[in-house]
Every structure is written in structure tokens, then in C-alpha cells.
Amino acid sequence: MNTNISAQQNKSEEANQPAGGRTKEKRVFTASDNAVRSILKKYRKDIWTPFMSAIKQYELISTGDRIAVCMSGGKDSALLAVLMKQLHSHSDVPFDVEYIVMDPGYSPKNREQIIKNAETLEIPIKIFDTDIFGVTENQTDGSPCYLCARMRRGHLYSYAESLGCNKIALGHHFSDVIETTLMGMLWGSQIQGMLPRLRSTNYKGMELIRPLYKIHEDSIIAWARYNSLEFLGCACAMTESAAVDESKSKRREIKSLIRRLRDEGNVDIEKNIFNSIHRANIDTLVGYKLDGVEHSFLERFE
């Protein structure tokens, strides 16, 4: 895919002197303008460049796509929406986009915060309601978070399909990718990555894409703070009532482990984990799974 972006070269805020000697008034930048400007300037290397790299390397967008950008109320999906809006405005590859928000049962305060952030960033969202929190709160077996994630994905696919979309874009980022890889090894007893795009098995013709695949979470946090933006965390009723202790979550443990190893001198640890899922050496693995079928090295050995 050939995607060329004519990055906006924003005019100086200083007044110019046009013909006739009249002073040109300064342009007043909105919060949305500043959020975009910071991406294209201050955080260009950390956000815009890896975003475009992922779009191109993994061929995430094609001509004629209609993409549902899923916003959860968090910082990651908000940045995704801003990036996709900018790309949609300046890409030479024509595609359409919808910005969708699923309300799984947010409190009125949290719902209002999502709407406020969308207005601040000038994202034209479409909200649809579900009763996911009502279902997961009554979950007695297994993980309510796992059930919630599965139900969210199904509702998002269904609503995106109703809007004529063939892809949904989620806000999983670089840090999610490497953390998931380690969690799979240490707690799931398998080497498992997180693909930048995959086909839905239940919705024919639908794909999931992850345009933030190469963007570090620290960069997203820095962007949000620089623009004085406040976003929701998990925001589910169980988290709000402290029924789930996030401080003891496995993902938080992995974050701490990676941070500690990096601080102790392995400065490339995150990059190395990320690169490892791009360079899996099947010749050295005792077993692997392909298309759901398990294989052994003995098949090749003989």
C-alpha cells in the first residue's frame, strides 16, 4: 500500500504584514488544533512517525475501507481517534471512518467525561448502549474482565457492521504488545503475540486493526499531559467499587518487571521483546501451533 501524508505545515502564530500595511490577526488555536499540532511537531518522532510506520508496514488501510474507530474513554483510543482523523484528512488513499463509543453501563459522570473529551478533540462520535456491566457484575465463575472483553468485542463488531464498516480500529499500543507476549509465557505457558491486524472469525469480511502498534504507552501519557487532557481508566462498576484490585493485576506486574530490568541496564529490553515476535525462529521450537493445529519438531526431524 502506498500511503503518502502531506503533513500540515502550520503557519506561524505571529502576525504577517500583507499588502496594504494591514496587520493580519493571529489565528486562535483550539484545544483540538493544539492536540494535533503537538503530534505533528513535539511528538512527531514518538507518535506520528511510528503510527505511519505501522499503517504502511502492516498494510492496515486500503482504498475503499470504512473503518470504525472504537473509543473507550481512555487515553489510547482518544489518541487513536485524533490520529485517524488527521490521516483521513490528508491521506491520498481514500477511506471512510466512523468514531464509535460503546456505553457498557458507565456512570453518568463517566459518560459525560467521554462526551466532553470528544467535543474537546472535535471527534464526531456515535454512542450506542449495551448492558455489559449489568451482566459481568453477576458473573460468579471465571474472570469478569475476560467476559467483559469478549462481550465488548462482539458488540463493537456488530455495531460497526451495521454502519457498513469492514474494519474496526482498537487502541492497543506497543506496550500492550510486549506485555501480552510476556504474560503469555509466564502465566499462559505459551509464546503468543498480538497481531497488528486479524480477520474476524464470526463476522465475515470484518478485520481488526491496531494502528498504535508501534507507539509506546509513555508517549501517549506524555501527549495527554502536555495537552492537559484527562481520560477514564477502566471505569467499570467493579473497579469503581474496588471489587477488582488493579494493583495486583498480572499486567501491572509485567509493567513493573519490564521497568525494573530497563532501569537495571537493559535499555533495549522493550525493543528486544517487540522484535522477537517479528523474528520467531520456528526451527528451534519444540512445538508450535499453526491454524489451530499443533505441530512438533519431530515432523521435520524425520
Q: Which SSEs are present, and which pair or pack?
A:
Layout: H1 31-40, H2 44-57, E1 66-71, H3 75-90, E2 96-103, H4 108-120, E3 125-129, H5 132-136, H6 144-162, E4 167-169, H7 174-186, E5 197-199, E6 207-209, H8 217-226, H9 237-240, H10 250-263, H11 269-276, E7 287-290, E8 293-296, H12 298-301
Parallel strand pairs: 1-2, 1-4, 2-3, 4-6
Antiparallel strand pairs: 5-6, 7-8
Helix pairs in contact: 7-10
Write a concise keyword list for the protein shown above.
302 residues; alpha/beta; six-stranded mixed beta sheet; two-stranded antiparallel ribbon; 8 strands; 12% strand; globular
What composes the largest sheet? 6 strands, mixed
- How many helical stretches? 12
Oligomer: single chain
Label the structural class.
alpha/beta
DSSP E strands, number: 8
- Widest β-sheet, arrangement of strands: 3-2-1-4-6-5
Mean pLDDT, to the nearest integer, reads 87
Distance between the termini: 41 Å
Strand content: 5-15%
Radius of gyration: 22 Å
Helix content: 40-55%
Low-confidence stretches: 1-16, 241-247
Q: Overall 3D geometry? A: globular
How would you sum up this structure, described in words?
By secondary structure, the protein is of the alpha/beta class. Helix content is 43%, strand content 12%. It is built from twelve helices and eight strands. The strands form two sheets. Strands 3-2-1-4-6-5 form a six-stranded mixed β-sheet, sandwiched between helices. The protein has a two-stranded antiparallel ribbon with strand order 7-8. α7 packs across α10 (250-263). The radius of gyration is 22 Å and the shape is globular. The two termini are 41 Å apart.
